[in-house]
């Protein structure tokens, strides 16, 4: 296990005390103070970031921090908005029937504490480098950037679901080239231009457009040092406001508020009017998935405790192994979002819809509280890949491993509740798309591309 300084140990003890408090609390106490619980947990998590000093930036962008923060922030805001009726009425009936408040808080506090602990568990690994057979490390970056930009422009107008994967890959490749070629001032300008290009043609993929910010943050990680200061708080707050502004603008472009905006810039002119409207809070709760994340991630535990659903006992974890086997041949294992949605709203499921449940809730769906024994190795695996990726960035070898940066970005969809099977499908398409890209580069720039004989 990684050595931890005394200040960080004090914060971890405080987090553990939250688990103990939730264990000893009554149902009424858990209901009354649910929102405060997640707010305090998240506050302590931010304090932990600052106590880690040189490790702070790495922890801040780690799978552990992201998974726990996503739940805490959503549950804190979601709890407040549901209690005060600031959501669309269709979400309230199930919420009003909840009765296992103490069980839910105890579980989420416990599993989130273990997810945090998993970051500090280090295992010795000998991960072999595998640039998918073809290496483009020695390609002239100016030529590579030109080709990649052309690919992005050509493919951008296509709105098919899986086209978002190659679009994202091209954008990330450009980010890497920009990171390695230009000074910070120019990097910020070029990052912004690529994000704008992506946003203009991906109005129905706002989540992926926002998630593209994370590869940029990873690339710039060594240039960022998080310190407890007003300047740091201001920068983080300003970045958050910019992200929210982009999300709201893209939502208006998709039809929220009925403004009939023609493009992203046109939509942005309606932001103030939309924010001050009476339907803004329920709409933004829905748009930011506060309603969905809070309701369904908690509701699945209520359903299991009320025996409306059965524990799947690991079925959703083995589901990815059956992806390419036709349903006509064998009855496939259940997947988390499909099983839950069918129970919650069978008609909606029959129409092809699904409701997300967080990765923490998926663990509970499988094994209940016994899932606490499995969560640490699960996150140790992802944190190990994360550290390997950071080493590749530092060694300027990441251009051959773009799939790691996009995989990291896709991890956010797993956290929010895509299910392991959908996450696996995306990774497979990602690897195939990146290989096709490398083959295209080899054809267009044959003298600059080498074939790796060793994995």
Topology, element by element:
Blueprint: H1 6-24, H2 27-32, H3 34-51, H4 56-60, H5 63-83, H6 92-96, H7 101-119, E1 134-135, H8 141-155, H9 164-181, H10 184-200, H11 206-211, H12 213-219, H13 230-253, H14 264-268, H15 271-275, H16 280-287, H17 290-305, H18 315-318, H19 336-344, H20 346-350, H21 359-367, H22 372-394, H23 402-416, H24 420-444, E2 450-451
Antiparallel strand pairs: 1-2
Helix pairs in contact: 1-3, 1-7, 3-5, 5-7, 5-17, 5-23, 7-22, 8-9, 9-10, 9-23, 17-21, 23-24
Question: What would the keywords be for this entry?
Answer:
455 residues, mainly alpha, two-stranded antiparallel ribbon
How would you characterize the overall build of this protein?
Helices cover 67% and strands 1% of the residues. The protein has helices at 6-24, 27-32, 34-51, 56-60, 63-83, 92-96, 101-119, 141-155, 164-181, 184-200, 206-211, 213-219, 230-253, 264-268, 271-275, 280-287, 290-305, 315-318, 336-344, 346-350, 359-367, 372-394, 402-416, 420-444, and strands at 134-135, 450-451. The protein has a two-stranded antiparallel ribbon with strand order 1-2. It starts with 5 loop residues before the first helix and ends with a strand. The model has no long low-confidence stretch (mean pLDDT 85).
